[in-house]
Amino acid sequence: MSVDENGAVAFDNVDLCQTWEVLEQCKDAGLVKSIGVSNFNRELLERILNKPGLKYKPVCNQVEFHPYLTQNGLQKFCRSKDIVLVGYGVLGSPGAGNWKDQGVPSILQNPILISIGKKYQKSPVQVSIRYTMQRGVVPIVKSFSPERLRQNFQVFDFHLSPEDMKEIDGLNQNLRYWKYEVWKDHPNYHYQNFD
């Protein structure tokens, strides 16, 4: 990250549509099978989708997603455009350290997720992953522990009821663990916009 003479972050202002055209060229050249975006809100997606001469739309949009940030409007928009929503932070990123907002409560200690987990003999981790999947979002979870990796895959042997889903939906508060405030003065900064 570069800084200006005052020590402030120096931003590039690269045109998104020009960047997308280069990605389309990569796809045409066979260098990639598909192309997508990350951390795009509806406005940024529409810039790409409304680009004159668009050859390929984004196949996915990777965004923060968990019970405290369900991004309902963005999910509905992406679904209407056949763009897959991929969720990171599904578990609240407990090992992220100073990168995440420490003021946002832990998902894994939420009493509702714990209670629902007990009903299915599952952990809050497994409930959050399953919830994400049932919302139609592809969850990204990681662990360096082989045992936790195994547990993360044990989400295909149960299904949350509509009542469970509604209860977890009610946890949404539009709380972000990842705010990337170092970039808040960039013209494309959009983390305060949830749709």
How do the helices and strands line up, and which of them pair or pack?
Blueprint: H1 16-28, E1 37-38, H2 42-49, E2 60-64, H3 72-80, E3 84-88, H4 111-120, H5 124-134, E4 138-139, H6 146-153, H7 162-169
Parallel strand pairs: 1-2, 2-3, 3-4
Family: Belongs to the aldo/keto reductase family.
Pfam families: Aldo_ket_red
Domain NADP-dependent oxidoreductase: 13-172
| Count of discrete alpha- or pi-helical segments spanning 4 or more residues | 7
Mean pLDDT: 87
**Low-pLDDT residue intervals, each spanning 5 or more residues:** none
Q: Identify the CATH class.
A: Alpha Beta
How many domain regions? 1
Spatial strand order of the main sheet = 1-2-3-4
Radius of gyration: 18 Å
**Main sheet attributes: strand count, strand direction, barrel closure:** 4 strands, parallel
Number of strands: 4
Task: Explain what you see.
InterPro entries: AKR (IPR020471), Aldo/ket_reductase_CS (IPR018170), NAD(P)_OxRdtase_dom_sf (IPR036812), NADP_OxRdtase_dom (IPR023210). Belongs to the aldo/keto reductase family. One of its GO terms (molecular function) is oxidoreductase activity. This is NADP-dependent oxidoreductase domain-containing protein. It holds the Pfam family Aldo_ket_red. With 195 residues, the protein is of the alpha/beta class. The chain has a single domain, classed as Alpha-Beta Barrel (TIM Barrel), CATH 3.20.20.100. 34% of the residues lie in helices and 7% in strands. It is built from 7 helices and 4 strands; from the N terminus they run H-E-H-E-H-E-H-H-E-H-H. Strands 1-2-3-4 form a 4-stranded parallel sheet. Helix 2 links the parallel strand 1 and strand 2. Helix 4 crosses helix 5. The chain is globular and about 50 Å long.
